[in-house]
Every structure is written in C-alpha cells, then in structure tokens.
Amino acid sequence: MNVIGARPDGWWKDRHAAMVALVTKLEGWAADGHRVTVVLERRPSPPIRSTLIEIAHAPAAAPNSADDEIVRLLHADSAPDAITVVTSDRVLAERVHATGARVYPASRFRDLLDGSVR
To answer: How many CB atoms lie within 10 A of CB 47?
Structure first.
C-alpha cells in the first residue's frame, strides 16, 4: 500500500481496485524487461493474477505484515544486493538496507509508472 498510497487519488475508497490498478501498471513495467514482485498486505479477494509479475502477500494481515514479508523474501534470496525495494517507509528502508538491497522512493516510482518521468 506504500506505492499505492503515494498518490492521494481516492485509493482508500476501493483498496482492491487500487491493488488491481497497481498490478496492471507493474505489468507494463515488467513488459519492458523488469522483474517485479509486488507484496500485498493480505491475500486479495477476489484473487489478483498476473503472468508477468509475481504477486505475493503477507501470511496474515497485521501492522507491518507486508514489510515483514518483504524482509523475509530478501533474506531468502541468494542475491539481495541485486534487488531494489520501492518504499517511502523509513523503518522498512532501514530494514531493506540491512539485507544489502537498495531502496527507491515510492513517489518517484509512481511517477515512473504513471509516465511522468522517463
């Protein structure tokens, strides 16, 4: 929700639609050759599927559950230094840096996804 929440565009009125919209934009990003995993705070209902990106979710919805899942995935990866996590959450950014991964600001990434920056 960190990337979704980077824009006050009414996403909170329909969280599922906001997640679908993000996945759609990420599929466009992945079609350009980027490898993408999106981590959602809970299993979406109805499910969101993609053949271009990996859709992960926290095992149980709770405060910081998606953050915990992101860090778990980084620790499980053999090359976390090759991964960039998109977030503007300071605490998550510190945890990500501790694994050796990089951080990119959510608002700047939304600009890239929305075509505002090339």
So the answer is: 8
Element of type H or E holding 86: strand 84-86
Q: Which residue is listed with tokens 């860090």?
A: 71
Task: Give the position of tokens 């995935």.
Answer: 73
Helix (H, G, I), strand (E, B) or coil at 39: strand
Structural domain contains residue 55: yes
Number of domains in the chain: 1
54 assigned to some structural domain:
yes
pTM above 0.70, yes or no: yes
How far from the centroid of its chain's Cα atoms is residue 9's Cα? Answer: 17
Radius of gyration of the chain (CA): 14
Tell me the pLDDT of the chain (118 aa) as tens digits. Answer: 788 888 888 888 999 999 999 999 999 999 989 999 999 988 999 999 999 999 999 998 888 899 999 999 999 999 999 999 999 999 999 999 999 999 999 999 999 888 855 4
